[in-house]
TrEMBL record:
<dbReference type="InterPro" id="IPR000620">
    <property type="entry name" value="EamA_dom"/>
</dbReference>
<keyword id="KW-0472">Membrane</keyword>
<feature type="transmembrane region" description="Helical">
    <location>
        <begin position="209"/>
        <end position="231"/>
    </location>
</feature>
<feature type="domain" description="EamA">
    <location>
        <begin position="159"/>
        <end position="285"/>
    </location>
</feature>
<feature type="transmembrane region" description="Helical">
    <location>
        <begin position="120"/>
        <end position="137"/>
    </location>
</feature>
<protein>
    <submittedName>
        <fullName>Aromatic amino acid transporter</fullName>
    </submittedName>
</protein>
<keyword id="KW-1003">Cell membrane</keyword>
<feature type="transmembrane region" description="Helical">
    <location>
        <begin position="64"/>
        <end position="86"/>
    </location>
</feature>
<keyword id="KW-1133">Transmembrane helix</keyword>
<dbReference type="InterPro" id="IPR037185">
    <property type="entry name" value="EmrE-like"/>
</dbReference>
<feature type="transmembrane region" description="Helical">
    <location>
        <begin position="157"/>
        <end position="173"/>
    </location>
</feature>
<feature type="transmembrane region" description="Helical">
    <location>
        <begin position="185"/>
        <end position="203"/>
    </location>
</feature>
<dbReference type="GO" id="GO:0005886">
    <property type="term" value="C:plasma membrane"/>
</dbReference>
<feature type="transmembrane region" description="Helical">
    <location>
        <begin position="243"/>
        <end position="266"/>
    </location>
</feature>
<feature type="transmembrane region" description="Helical">
    <location>
        <begin position="38"/>
        <end position="57"/>
    </location>
</feature>
<dbReference type="Pfam" id="PF00892">
    <property type="entry name" value="EamA"/>
</dbReference>
<feature type="transmembrane region" description="Helical">
    <location>
        <begin position="92"/>
        <end position="113"/>
    </location>
</feature>
Amino acid sequence: MSRHRYTLFGIAAILLWGCLMGLTRTVAEQFGPIGGAALIYSVASLFLLIVMGVPKVHQFSLRYVLIGGALFVSYEICLALALGMANSRHQALEMAVINYLWPALTVLFAVLTSRQPVSVWVYPSIALAFVGVAWTITGDQGLSFTLIADNVSTNPLTYAMAFFGAIIWAVYCNVTKIIAKGQNAIGLFFIATASVLWFQYAMSDEGPLVFTASGTLSLLLTGVVMGSGYALWNVAILRGNMLLLATLSYFTPVISTLFSSMILGVMLGASFWQGVAMVTIGSLVCWWVTRERATKKRFAVPHESAL
């Protein structure tokens, strides 16, 4: 019975992560992209300290802290700022879909660095995920490189941050499974992320933070949701049904798009949902056809998930 309970913890974490894209955008709109992100990670860090305790830095290997920490912080900042700096709420949802290229990229990088034979379905599945992203960007106007270029040109920095964020997290997934050796420094990494964001805020030209009742409530909710997601997942992966949780986690793009569109009040067209479905199916097939090798630790995705 206890295993079912921990599996439910993992399902709850996936549902919480599904809300984060929309919540992060709402906080950015009230406090600014950098200031809002710094506040979110500060609240989440405090929550994780309360729930998981103070990180025992001396127990972590220096290589894991430096390399894993740098990749984690870079990813979180790229994603948070891409969501906050998007021109509109609809564009923020596009950033979220681009972010969910990371599962397919994780498999791609693992395959490229391995000399083991892989299923013929891997590369078409990765291509499907990329086509899905392009499909969401072009909307109902049909797939066109010109349209993609035109849309990206309206805010190239945010598209670049979202895409490079997905690449960074895919690298993180492949690197940390080797250097972490079972260690989990999420709490420490969150504190580092908040610290870097506060430095960026101090160096930026964003105005002073103005706290309102609604803004503070949104901030606290977002920080607690973020921290709870990681805390619950950390327990679930140790004692829950990891095969089921891993399968369900690949449906996060659909869950995230649904919840975020509701939170942000954005109506999405059929083409956007079709693109999300392509990203989800492509990523799921990538993982599914390599899962047997994953049990042999060749293509395993680490037990830390992304937003």
